[in-house]
């Protein structure tokens, strides 16, 4: 499909918290009350989309309003402007071309905090961890990463193939992935690699909400607490009311 280029005055908006049932037509209809919709795009099964309005004034009105589609209150913000096309997050296929370069970069602060303290069992730095790694926990053989998006820009890259588990939350002393939004819990969720399939791919990533107050969301749907759910290539995680999106990427894309 040929993508529409910007005309210099239109404004592209990022729309989050979409139902997986919402299509581009529904998104377009919801924003037509603000003005002329130049373009609307909803990637399949991602829980977000993009709308381009004809003028900055129309875009500002949309951002200031409460917009609901399919029973969900949408998160509307400015999207990153691209010189190549109006809609769409930076192509993840393009990002994949940088794998060999990124693999040599430092760890961006991932601390390996979930390594057990030999003296205290499941207590680490004075905090009782809210979960214990399962018996099938394993460090993955394949390269997995998480691209953290803020306002449709890559804010951080997390190299999650370097250990078997990553604690997500607000407690700086013990969490590997910090989510400092006030709606997030101290120990919010865990990303756990498990070797359950006994195939050549090795350990695969799972996510479990640690009974957080405001929930963990996978592709827009809230997860049941205290249950592991397998993560797939290009899945999108969000935590509580934080606007940051965590896109799961497998190096070979399969």
TrEMBL record:
GO terms for molecular function: RNA binding. Keywords: RNA-binding. InterPro entries: Cell_Proc_Reg/RNA_Proc (IPR050923), FHA_dom (IPR000253), Nucleotide-bd_a/b_plait_sf (IPR012677), RBD_domain_sf (IPR035979), RRM_dom (IPR000504), SMAD_FHA_dom_sf (IPR008984). It comes from the Eukaryota. Residues 166-223 form the FHA domain. Residues 11-81 form the RRM domain. PANTHER family: NUCLEAR INHIBITOR OF PROTEIN PHOSPHATASE-1. This is FHA domain-containing protein. It comes from Chrysophaeum taylorii. The lineage of its organism: Eukaryota, Sar, Stramenopiles, Ochrophyta, Pelagophyceae.
């Amino acid at each position: 499909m040929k993508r529409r280029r910007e005309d210099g005055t239109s404004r592209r908006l990022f729309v989050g918290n979409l139902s997986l049932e919402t299509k581009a037509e529904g998104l377009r209809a919801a924003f037509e009350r603000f003005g002329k919709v130049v373009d609307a795009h909803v990637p399949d099964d991602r829980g977000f989309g993009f709308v381009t309005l004809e003028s900055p004034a129309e875009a500002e009105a949309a951002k200031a309003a409460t917009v609901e589609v399919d029973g969900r209150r949408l998160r509307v913000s400015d999207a990153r402007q691209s010189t190549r096309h109006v809609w769409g997050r930076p192509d993840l296929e393009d990002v994949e071309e940088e794998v060999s370069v990124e693999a040599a970069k430092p760890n961006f602060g991932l601390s390996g905090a979930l390594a057990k303290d030999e003296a205290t069992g499941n207590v680490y730095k004075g905090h009782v961890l809210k979960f214990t790694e399962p018996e099938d926990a394993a460090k993955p053989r394949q390269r997995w990463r998480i691209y953290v998006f803020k306002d449709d820009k890559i804010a951080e890259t997390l190299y999650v193939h370097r250990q078997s588990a990553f604690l997500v939350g607000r407690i700086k002393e013990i969490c590997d992935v910090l989510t400092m939004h006030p709606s997030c819990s101290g120990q919010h969720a865990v990303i756990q690699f498990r070797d359950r399939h006994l195939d050549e791919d090795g350990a695969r990533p799972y996510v479990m909400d640690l009974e957080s107050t405001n929930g963990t969301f996978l592709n827009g749907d809230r997860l049941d607490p205290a249950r592991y759910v397998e993560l797939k290539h290009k899945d999108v995680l969000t935590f509580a009311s934080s606007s940051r999106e965590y896109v799961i990427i497998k190096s070979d894309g399969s």
